[in-house]
UniProtKB/TrEMBL annotation:
Keyword Cell inner membrane: no
One MF annotation (Gene Ontology) recorded for this entry: protein serine/threonine phosphatase activity
Protein name: Serine/threonine-protein phosphatase
A GO CC term assigned to this protein in UniProt: cytoplasm
Serine/threonine specific protein phosphatases domain ranges (all copies): 71-76
Amino acid sequence: MLLELEAPIKICGDIHGQYTDLLRLFEYGGFPPEANYLFLGDYVDRGRQSLETICLLLAYKIKYPENFFLLRGNHECSQINRIYGFYDECKRRYNIKLWKTFTDCFNCLPVCAVIDEKIICMHGGLSPELTNLEQIHRIMRPIEVPDTGLLCDLLWSDPEKDMQGWQDNERGVSYIFGPDVIANFLKKNDMDLVCRAHQVVEEGYEFFAKRQLVTLFSAPNYCGEFDNSGALMSVDETLMCSFQILKSQEKKNVPQARPRTPKYVN
C-alpha cells in the first residue's frame, strides 16, 4: 500500500473525470514515458468523462509500470462513486458489471507514496493513528475504505491552519489537523514535505504550515462552478519542486475574483 519512488517525477492532484484537462496536463508535463508521473487519486465522479479518464490512466500504468503510478482517492470507493456520478456513468454507457470491475480495481490501489525518503504523498492527509510508515505497508489488499481509522484518514483528512492538534472534520468523516501535527510528523520521520490533494485551491497548488505541506488540485474550472486553475508539481533530482499551472479553458481570459481558501470536496 506504500510506494517507494524516486525523483524526477511529476505529481498531479484530483482529475474528477475532466478528461480533456487530463490531456492538457500531459501536454504540459509530457506524455508518458517522456516523464514519470504520480497521481494522487480522485479520477472519477463529478466530471462527464470518468470512464475515459480512468481507462487512459490505467492503460498508461499497464504500458509503463515503472514510470506511472496511481494512488487511491476517497472517490475510488464504491460508497462514494455510487452517489457522485461514476456508477451512473457506467450504467448509462455500459453496465453495472463494469462498475463492479472498477470497484475491484480501486480496492487494490496503493494509498501512499514516498519520494526519495523525503516527500510523502497521499490523497487526503495524515492520521492520528499513523506513527510509522510500516503501518501503511501492513494494510492488506484488496480492501474497502472503512468509515474510521488509518486508511480512512489517509484518504479523507484535511489540514487546518487556525488550530493545533486534531479535531473532527466538518466533512463528517475523519479529522482536520494543525501545523504542529505536520511539523512533528516530518521531524519524527526525517522528511521534508507532505504532498496531498483533496481540496480545491485557486491556483491549483497551495502551501501550508511554512511550506511543509502542499495541496495539489489538477481539475481547472472544477465542475464548471469554481474559477480555479489546475496544477502539476515537478520534482527534480535534487527534490526541488516547481509548478506548471493549467488555466481554465473557459475562463482563462476572463479576470474574476477567486476564493482565497481551500474548498472542501466530498
